[in-house]
Write a structure and sequence with these properties.
5 copies of one chain form a homopentamer.
Chain A: H1 2-10, E1 32-38, E2 43-48, E3 63-69, H2 74-83, H3 88-95, E4 102-105, E5 110-119, E6 125-134, E7 138-143, H4 151-159, H5 169-203, H6 211-241, H7 249-314, H8 323-326, H9 330-351
Parallel strand pairs in A: 3-7
Antiparallel strand pairs in A: 1-2, 1-3, 4-5, 5-6, 6-7
Helix pairs in contact in A: 2-3, 5-6, 5-7, 6-7, 7-9
Family (chains A, B, C, D, E): Belongs to the CorA metal ion transporter (MIT) (TC 1.A.35) family.
Subcellular location (chains A, B, C, D, E): Cell membrane; Membrane
Organism (chains A, B, C, D, E): Gelatiniphilus marinus
């Protein structure tokens, strides 16, 4: 993962800083742009065929949300960016999917990058970069590909559910981020389930040789999720503390709420992390216990039969004068001795709790 | 645990932020509301049949405590909240039991969430969320279900014990939180006992295969308790530093006292945590020691009897010319040699401290 | 330890905050009160039969030290406290021996709690709580039982040694705390010796099965000492920075000196702590090394004699046609082969460095 | 590595502070100096034969970049330094290659030291110290030897690509540092690949005895990279916050971008570091698993054949009266018994999941 | 070490604070005092026979350095201290060699304590306390015994090398401290070499049973060096930030340089520390690998010969009717079977990669 990520970065090696180059792998994604424009009383929803169609919304007083899917269409993004006076580094960051969650404060807009997390078809955690630009009365959002967690947001705008239609762009940004953060909970829930399954498996001894590999994979997933979520806390905290007309005072309470959620998620991640490290310990202990058991079987078998075999060996010797060999009942006496030895041994191991 | 917790969160996934939805499992709990209204000279105690009955107390100058059990009754909570002008996010947090201990400061009230810890019937640590709203002359408290640690508080109000009846709502909140924090001490005392029992068990070798599972469970309990208690320190510290008429200067000394108690509890938790990690080490050492002992038995038995068996094998060979076989005393000489070898071996192992 | 500590706390569970209840175990201790009153020119030393006898000293301009042993006498402590206008929470903290070292700053006095450490008759580290109240021209000290480290202080007052008689109450508090902190050095010196003894023992293989238990005990002692000493650093640092006529500027240099000593002790504790954790590693390695040695002995014995026994077995077979059996020198040739095999094996193990 | 580094330091032991002494190993490197002088409209590129040739550029108003390769030529560096009024300690630091990345702020210039990382011919990570002096309208750069990552920078100046020709010396310094930081990404990408290869190798059991040595080497490489990169974050952050005419406000956005990149690299390094530590655990587990397997084979073989051999031994005894020996079918019955025992054993081990 | 250190402290237990008592072990050291007095144009160097001879230098305007070796001569130190108006606690700290590196700021002088590190004749790291008092135009230095790292400083004063003769006492203190810090580099270089030697030894399997003891010793050396060097960083940083005429602005750049060196040394120490901890892991792995190898040899030998011995045992039985015994070629057939079994086994172990 990190590997491919770095590889994508390398596409840019030696480029002029500020070059707008898409670093992801979905190079053939179709461009999709949608626009919402709403106020208390009405709303417009429109799929746009060209980025230029969105320009008209800039002039309205109503709140505008322009959502663009397909970061490979750098030209369209550049057009949009220039129309909204975005800094070249902002455009560069939008299409460079190796960003860390961050916030950059510019004079008349805020630029926020974060990570959408979801499980792909192979049940691996995938991260997708989402960038937001919050202006005076608009929010621009940029996603790598179709499919997102914003359907509830769209519904709310359409049906004027909740307070979204009464509020401004800063509240729109809030519910968009909130939708992403809410989804983090399901991600870590699945992680928690996996850890519990492992614990049960290790405890029941249903372990294969892959366990240590699997635990390593789990560690890496946790690290991936951590990396996507932890920096976001500071981002949200800075939005909350941001002093500008872009974020209204009454909206800050809501950002504080996202912050609380992120702290909850972070805490869970740290707990899971600690538990994964413990898993390895449990696994080591299980291995040691198994080896102990194997050793005990070997020791019991060897300790019982080696002395008996020695005794049998004694009377298999061919000396001419071995008095015992002549006595009629020696054989039976010997059996008796051996049975006694056998029982004695069993008794000894019983006392040592090996049986 | 974390799992179910997250599942409860999921009930809310895709909901409008600010929706007041109970996320706990006690959905069929009966509503119970009680009200205390008191001043220096008199007090009223009343069980309320409907939330509306509590509204009258808002007008009095005396201190009012309204305690509501049953977070599933979201409508009643909403009514109460609206009457006291609580922010929708506060109501949402009251019924969402996945909160972390926190304090939110609003213009004319403080909102405090914390966790009550107790042992359930299976002797597992259970957390229950308790929310407080502290206003100018009232305290609202919200609990998930009946049964709490507030009986001493009720007694004190009734019998005018201590200084509660002479003080204001901020002091009432203090003794309520103090009752919860005091109970933490018994929780961690039991944890301490469990750890000591484990230590004794491991040291005495009375260990079963479940030990590593049990230690893992103990770790998780500690993490649970930590998560409930640690953030509370900051909450109390912020109450102590809070600059508003809600918290009087002379009451702050008392909050400082709670803070000291929390530091004590936290310190103990950290010590227990460190000791649990050591337990695993002790357990590993015990396993290794046991394996060592098993190996020694095997080695002693094999080292003694394998050479003897070889000697016996020699004279069991059927060569026609083995001179020793003819001598009359060879058999007895051989026994002598074997006994010497046996004693030599014992001596050798004795010197190596294996016996 | 922690257990009993919590148990003592529990005595108070459900009590009104501010109740003055002794939580220690020395409930039948006799009350002992002594008073020193001195200035540059003269001093009075007096054992008091009742707490009321101390009241007269409050009026003098000279420096007064009242030392009370026996925290179980809560009534006397309350009387003294009321006479000196101490806050009820201060009195509660004096007799609740579960305090953490702390400083509470009140308007006209400082309240300092710390821990005296000493070895009891069983050579276990014991902590005893000592509380100080520093007023304008007096120091009150409260100890659980007789026997303390203040004899040098008493001598200095009596004999006007050092500068004590020329200085004020803040300097008296300094030499009292200094006496306690000086004693910490001997405590950690003994700890250091214990660790070194363990190291030597483990290194020399003189280890018993109790080692891991002993190391665990040592860890706990370190944690106990840490808990007593570490918070004191902040206490002293706050005295040094305290802005009030209670602490004179020229005395602060001396508190700075105590602070330096505490940093030294803390550093040693942290080093010891790290070394104890290493001890466990050393011990594990020792166990592994021992098992290795055991395994080598077994492997050498088995590898040498099992093949030889096989050869002997071959010629113990009863086939009618085994040509070798008829040759006159086969037996001796076989011995030769076996000796060669034996030497070869020894050589092989020598080369592998197992012998 | 650290060793040689210290050795190079020792060359200076006992020297007067401020002595300008080259501490690297490339003592015979040829001096190479190049100069770029450009403004919006034109540029000059020139290889200089003597350091004095560069002095003329100081007078121009255009932006000058003087790049010197060959730190062993201390005299030339001193001449250059004196011409630009550099502090003696700056000159000392330029040629002492044991510097940590740092920034020193002088009155009319900034001195920045950082590390260029690349893979040498043996595929080991090598660090080379690069120093920059940023003045009002010039940048001086000092490298130990030829070969650098600045070719894109040169191209951009020549071809007026990007905005470099329109900007000032502070932007030139930015693209120089950016070129170095961009290269860090390829370094850590290779590290990531190595770690993944190790994981795969360990998981597939393709491990040699050198693995623990190799992991140790990997740890050291990570530490080396960390040491080169981590302090740079603070350096860049201080440039960004630097208040002087040397760094223009609009350039700071670009330094912020480098800072973001460094945070990304640092995060990856920390993740790799954690994964390397896990590798060791995985390796230990693999070893334990292997030993377990070895033990199982031994135990199965011994447990099956030792009892059988004992039975055969019994009937190899030479007692005169062993009734079984006379029965015609005993031999075949015995075979049957042995086969049954054998099958029973197999069944037993099957049930224990050892087969 | 720590032990003896504490023991030395104990000499003081129960003493009046401020008592000037030497706590080191070199009680019979001869007193040695030397004085340098210099300005730009001339210098005086003089060995003093009595401390009083130094008093005259106090009156001069030139810079004076008085160096005293032999902390056991407390009376002379006291005389000197009183002449220079040093605080009694300063005198106490000078002769109490258990100090931590620290700086105490007094009204008209700075008191700096630090540790000189060197290897003693047994190649163990030894620390010696050096104290400096920096006054307006003088530096006093106090060492425990003869032999120091200040020869370069003396030479520079004598020969007017570098800028020392043009600068003031603050610069003199700088070059004295710089000489000590420079020497730290050789100390940690030797440490680095030791670690590398260990790594090579462990990797090559040239390990003795003392390895874990040696690693433990190495850990302790690192801790010792850390304790001497780490606090010094803060000391130097406080000198650099010190606002008083004692430290001139232009000298601060030089102290900043020492600070940079200390950061370098500290970083190396932390890296070495991490590597030592890894060493223990490597060692454990090596032990495990060795045990694995031992186990394999045992398993191969036993698995091959135990079944063969069983077969031989079969035909050593004395049953009257064993048909195979009569066939002429059974013996040779049996040999064939055994050889096949043997080869099969070898093949099996080869495939398992045990051979």
């Amino acid at each position: 993962m990190s590997k491919s990520r770095n590889k994508t970065h390398n596409k840019k090696l030696g480029q002029i800083p500020g070059s707008i180059i898409y670093t992801g792998k979905k190079a053939s994604h179709k461009l999709f742009i949608e626009a919402f424009d709403y106020n208390k009383d009405q709303y417009i929803e429109k799929e746009l065929l060209a980025v230029e169609e969105s320009f008209e919304f800039k002039l309205t007083n109503s709140t505008t949300w322009i959502n663009l899917n397909g970061l490979n269409h750098v030209n369209d993004i550049e057009k949009l960016g220039n129309h909204y006076n975005l800094h070249p580094l902002v455009l560069e960051d939008i299409v460079n999917i190796a960003q860390r969650p961050k916030i950059d404060e510019y004079e008349d807009y805020l630029f926020v990058v974060l990570k959408m997390l979801y499980y792909d078809e192979n049940n691996n955690i995938t991260t997708e970069q989402v960038s937001f630009v919050l202006g005076k009365n608009y929010v621009l959002s940029f996603q790598e590909s179709d499919g997102d967690v914003f359907d509830t947001v769209r519904d709310r705008i359409r049906q004027a559910k909740g307070r979204v239609r009464n509020m401004h762009a800063d509240y729109l940004l809030y519910i968009l981020i909130d939708a992403i953060v809410d989804y983090y909970f399901s991600i870590i829930e699945v992680l928690g389930d996996k850890i519990e399954d492992f614990e049960t498996a290790i405890f029941n001894g249903k372990i294969t040789d892959d366990v240590s590999k699997d635990i390593q994979d789990l560690k890496r997933e946790i690290l991936k999720v951590r990396r996507a979520i932890f920096p976001l806390r500071e981002v949200i905290s800075r939005i909350e503390k941001h002093e500008s007309p872009l974020i209204q005072k009454k909206t800050k309470t809501f950002y504080r709420d996202i912050f609380d959620h992120l702290i909850q998620v972070s805490e869970n991640i740290d707990i899971y992390r600690e538990m994964i490290w413990s898993l390895m310990d449990m696994y080591m202990t299980t291995i040691s216990n198994k080896m102990n058991e194997v050793m005990k079987v070997l020791t019991i078998m060897a300790s019982i039969f080696i002395p008996l075999t020695f005794i049998a060996g004694i009377y298999g010797m061919n000396f001419e004068y071995i008095p015992e060999l002549k006595y009629k009942y020696s054989y039976f006496i010997l059996w008796g001795v051996m049975v006694l030895l056998f029982i004695g041994m069993l008794f000894y191991f019983k006392r040592k709790k090996w049986l």
